[in-house]
Amino acid sequence: MTDGQHDKVTIQDVALRAGVSAMTVSRVLNNSVRVAPETRKRVEQAIEELGYLPNALASGLLKGRTSTIGLIVSDISNPFFTMVVRGVEDTAQRNSYTVFIGNSDESVEKERQYVTALLGKRIDGLLIAPASDASRETLEMVRRRGCPFVLVDRDVAGITADSVIGDNVGGAYTLTRHLLELGHTRIALVNGQPSVRTARDRRRGYEKALLEYGLEPDPALIVETGYHRAGGQQAAHHLLSLPAAVRPTAIFACNNFLAVGVVEALRAAQLSIPEDMALVSFDDIELASALHPFLTVMAQPVRSFGTIAAQLLFERLTGEGPSQPRQVILTPELIVRHSCGARLRQQPA
Amino acid sequence: MTDGQHDKVTIQDVALRAGVSAMTVSRVLNNSVRVAPETRKRVEQAIEELGYLPNALASGLLKGRTSTIGLIVSDISNPFFTMVVRGVEDTAQRNSYTVFIGNSDESVEKERQYVTALLGKRIDGLLIAPASDASRETLEMVRRRGCPFVLVDRDVAGITADSVIGDNVGGAYTLTRHLLELGHTRIALVNGQPSVRTARDRRRGYEKALLEYGLEPDPALIVETGYHRAGGQQAAHHLLSLPAAVRPTAIFACNNFLAVGVVEALRAAQLSIPEDMALVSFDDIELASALHPFLTVMAQPVRSFGTIAAQLLFERLTGEGPSQPRQVILTPELIVRHSCGARLRQQPA
DNA sequence: TTGAAAGCGCTAACAT
DNA sequence: ATGTTAGCGCTTTCAA
Percentage of chain A with pLDDT > 90? Predict the structure, then answer.
């Protein structure tokens, strides 16, 4: 009957009430060694009666472990990261860990501040989708402090660590090939900043596919902006303003936000997809694809990014698994929801 | 030059290196009282050189404050809560707090476990979207422990506390009226579980609008399931199976997931919106509405739910603001993206 | 302006 | 099987 009107009940209070020492109470709490069943019962009752809740700060201070991990993503409102968070949280909960969440907004500085705060709070480990290659310094600090971490979705030049990333080169290659096979030859790439690993890789896959088809990547058709709607809108707007001779017949949006921005710009220009402009996207768009299921996309196993990353971290924490870093590469899946070139007017050269 | 190869640098180490006492270092860290500029500089240098990072566990234990808050939602992958989380996180970061995140999955038991874990970690306050009215016991425990909390999106029968909720009755009323004014008379309600406050309120608004129009709510047109896609699909499927005489001409989905499920079921049945079936939804669907902008919805100021709730909590923590509980009611906005009855074949009686 | 002592709540390591 | 001691890393007194 947890009636505990008390504010701060300590282990001593419980010990007193149960007529034992604090150590015995501690042993009951931690299920350690053998405690006489009789004693255990008395202690448990005292705990119940006083409404005692162990202070995790105190035990964390002593044990050097907090059963807490940190998770830093660039933007939790990006459906991709939303699902990563969900996956991490599930896995953490199953392992009795709690999760600190933080948004870096692609800012290395904000990210550094977050990491510092979390290290100060003595997290046992960190899951992070690094803001950019400039996150390297921050990660080196994390390593120096002896805090295990796993990179999610993006890795960082110069950092060797456990990581869970998508096959961005392969995915972009497949997506581009899809357009090429449909006869498109002027395919624009609307991408994020090249300082981000995923952006570089997706561009590489795109260029590889073009070259295989004997096409030289055209700088005029490559727009590097940021992973957000406004970037997609502006990029599409720019591409539409190109002279007819160079204007693309297809657009490859390198992420879901960019794709949405492109759709908006196309609609504003009264152009329809895919009749007037073909569009494919890296990353699916969760709910949206159910409502508007006409976009061809490269869908990543989003939740798995979170669950697997968390799993790697926990194995690190418990000392299981190999000591050298492990890199998990998750393969995305091409979802063809419409044929991007069915009504393509221009035929391949 | 933070070269700190050390693992655990304590305040003592810094004190030693700077030739002062630990107290002086502590004072420098906390900017408290006056420290000789000369001394301060020496201390700061020692901190830098050793790569010292204060242990928040120790200071939290002593001060009884951790600069940490908890946030529990039913499902972070629901775009509504995603934005709430984002709003909370932004506000927290601005106030130098970190946020523990947890998903209850509408389970009171999971919620209770989470709350207990967080209280053990001595959060300074809690933001929570309660799983249901049965969360009451858990919240009473939180209160007994003296941990301030703010209810987000849902309140709980029998609990008086700071809260930030939407005008669910009013929103549902307006949305229903919209359909009525377009001539619909057989309007189905696809709702969540009545144990959840928002579901009850949305139903009330719906019924109120019907009654004002002289229509008696028809139990056959009210389906209570859960706030998820599968529920929406099943509900729509059921409604479509009704005899033509009773079958609705419009569906009111009480949340975004339900709306998506309904759309899917309608599409499977080869029915188009709004020609064959009108559809309105409580809650907008972020990215989706950009791609498929043809759904009439009641959009809530989602981010504000988070920022305002966090604000209320922080004012509570700093002792600002009135001591009696404050209830903030946020007004949703009707977004008419298409006319749900423009092509309605049946005219009102 | 600075320091010394005491202790926040818990548990590891050693008794008994 | 249980208890005693000491101390995790910091800050709140109180004193100098």
Answer: 84
> Chains A, B: CB contacts under 8 A, how many?
170
Ranges of residues in chain B with a pLDDT under 70 are: 1-7, 339-349
Distance A63 CA to C12 C1' (A): 9
Question: Can you tell me which residue has its alpha carbon closest to the C1' of nucleotide D9?
Answer: B58
Chain C bases under 7 Å from protein CB? 1-5, 7-13
Confidence at A218, pLDDT banded by 50, 70, 90 = very high
- Residue A126 structure tokens: 């960190």
User: Is any Cβ of chain A less than 8 angstroms from the Cβ of B77?
Assistant: yes
User: What does the DSSP assignment read for B42-57?
Assistant: HHHHHHHHHT----HH
Residue A246 has pLDDT above 70, yes or no: yes
Name the nucleotide nearest B61; use CA and C1'.
Answer: C8
Q: What is the pLDDT of residue B341?
A: 60
Whether the CB of A211 is below 8 Å from some CB of chain B: the reply is no
A229 within 8 A of A195, measured Cβ to Cβ: no
**Residue in A101, A117, A229 closest to B89 by CB:** A101
- In this model, does residue A34 exceed pLDDT 60? yes
Is the pLDDT reported for residue A10 higher than 50?
Answer: yes
Residue A150: which H helix or E strand, with range? Answer: strand A149-152
Predicted local confidence at residue A341, as pLDDT: 61
Diameter of chain A measured on Cα atoms: 90
Nearest residue on chain B to A117, alpha-carbon basis: B98
In this predicted structure, the answer to whether residue A226 has a pLDDT above a threshold of 80 is yes
Specify the pLDDT at position A5: 44
pLDDT at B309: 98
What pairs with residue A46 in β-bridges? none
**What is residue B339's predicted lDDT score, i.e. its pLDDT?**
65
Q: Which residues of A77-89 are buried (b: 16+ CB within 10 A; e: fewer)?
A: bbbbbbbbbbbbb
Provide, in whole angstroms, the distance separating residue A116's CA from nucleotide D8's C1': 21
A174-185 pLDDT per residue, tens:
999 999 999 999
Q: Which residue is nearest to nucleotide D11 (CA to C1')?
A: B62
Contacts of A121 in chain B (CB under 8 A): 56-57, 66, 68, 98
CA distances in angstroms from A244 to A186, A241, A247, A248, A262, listed in the order given: 11, 9, 5, 8, 18
Check if B60 contacts A (Cβ < 8 Å): yes
The whole-number pLDDT of residue A286 equals: 79
With CA atoms as reference, report the closest residue to B287 among B256, B333, B252: B256
Q: Write out the two tokens for B347.
A: 């005219």
Q: Which residue of B has its CA nearest to A63?
A: B57
CA B42 to chain centre: 47
Report d(CA B100, CA A336) in Å as an integer: 38
Assess B66–A contact: CB distance below 8 Å, yes or no. Answer: yes
